[in-house]
């Protein structure tokens, strides 16, 4: 099958400044990929991440290099040898799955044998702020079942206590984005366990995973920056009780499914996570959510304006509406994608 590819950047203004331990941003710059056989169109979105040496320019260059080779691509498995894990492969993988749904008349859930997920509860993320500022953020989503709190090494317990006071019934996830040291983690664990924290993401630098072997944590420790693809899982099982699967790290849904199976085989809990992007970026990952313990796909809530026909959110409950922008069979959305294709 002969396929054509187009890749371009789009930017989404954020609803508010988003701050984590390694910096702040006010917009999400994403890569949109479209593929077509001349009659049908598929699309996908990814977020290049500087932490992994990516930029919009580098990802576009990767896609430009692989475009002439698409004639030899008969399945998304072929991408595993054409592109490394990362944002470029993720966007192309998603576009190919979407196109396959159109060509076969079957949903991506059916094509992948994933359980259909009608709805789930996603974490809602609070960016780093003063304790009062984070309390105000928590009050705005009060009674959310699951809240994710971005933290650096400063005022950890003060910020956490402020959020817990604002929403005492919520389960809390801490995301330090590699910003802590082992001694700080050890000192904080007893108090965090009493403040509703159920999971801590990547407290130490990825290069320091081995230091977790000496820490007996009452809270689930989850690998994020350390976890990319299925071959990472066996090593991480020595240090963590959970892993965060993000499609921009695995390089797409195809490898994400493999990573999910590997995590199960090693008795690890799983979080499905995301970078900051639109519903198009969340859509492939959503297919994994019926089989994981934690969902963190609130990217569309962080942008000021999502794409049309994206996910619906209500007090943390995430629902895929019909019609939907990705992964379903039929002609829905094809005219809009044709117009987008022609405009690029």
From TrEMBL:
It is an enzyme of class 5 (isomerase). SMART domains: MR_MLE (SM00922). Its cofactor is Mg(2+). It holds the Pfam family MR_MLE_N. InterPro entries: DgoD-like, Dipeptide_epimerase, Enolase-like_C_sf, Enolase-like_N, Enolase_C-like, Mandel_Rmase/mucon_lact_enz_CS, Mandelate_racemase_C, Mandelate_racemase_N_dom. The keyword Metal-binding applies. Its EC number is 5.1.1.-. Residues 131-222 form the Mandelate racemase/muconate lactonizing enzyme C-terminal domain. Binds 1 Mg(2+) ion per subunit. Signal peptide: none annotated. Keywords: Isomerase, Magnesium, Metal-binding. Belongs to the mandelate racemase/muconate lactonizing enzyme family. This is Dipeptide epimerase. It comes from Alteromonas gilva.
């Amino acid at each position: 099958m002969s396929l054509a590819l187009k890749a371009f950047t789009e930017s989404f203004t954020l609803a508010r400044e988003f701050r984590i331990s390694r910096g702040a941003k006010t917009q999400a710059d994403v890569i949109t990929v479209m593929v077509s056989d001349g009659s049908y169109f598929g699309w996908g979105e990814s977020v290049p991440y500087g932490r992994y040496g990516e930029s919009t320019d580098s990802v576009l260059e990767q896609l430009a290099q692989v475009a002439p080779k698409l004639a030899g691509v008969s399945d998304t498995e072929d991408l595993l040898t054409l592109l490394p894990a990362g944002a470029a492969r993720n966007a192309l993988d998603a576009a190919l799955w979407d196109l396959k749904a159109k060509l076969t008349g079957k949903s991506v859930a059916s094509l992948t044998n994933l359980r259909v997920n009608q709805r789930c509860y996603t974490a809602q993320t609070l960016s780093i702020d003063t304790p009062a500022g984070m309390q105000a953020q928590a009050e705005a989503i009060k009674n959310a079942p699951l809240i994710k709190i971005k933290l650096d090494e400063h005022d950890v317990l003060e910020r956490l206590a402020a959020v817990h006071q604002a929403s005492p019934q919520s389960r809390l996830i801490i995301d330090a984005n590699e910003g802590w040291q082992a001694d700080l983690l050890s000192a904080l664990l007893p108090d965090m366990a009493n403040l509703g924290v159920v999971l801590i993401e990547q407290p130490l630098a990825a290069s320091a995973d081995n230091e977790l072997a000496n820490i007996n944590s009452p809270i689930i420790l989850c690998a994020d920056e350390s976890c990319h693809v299925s071959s990472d899982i066996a090593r991480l099982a020595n240090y963590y009780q959970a892993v965060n699967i993000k499609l921009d790290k695995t390089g797409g849904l195809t490898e994400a499914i493999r990573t999910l199976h590997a995590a199960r085989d090693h008795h690890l809990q799983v979080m499905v996570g995301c970078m900051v992007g639109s519903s198009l970026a969340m859509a492939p990952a959503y297919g994994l959510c019926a089989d994981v313990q934690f969902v963190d796909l609130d990217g569309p809530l962080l942008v000021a304006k999502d794409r049309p026909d994206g996910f619906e959110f209500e007090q943390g409950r995430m629902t895929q509406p019909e019609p939907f922008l990705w992964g379903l069979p039929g002609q829905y959305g094809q005219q809009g994608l044709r117009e987008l294709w022609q405009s690029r």
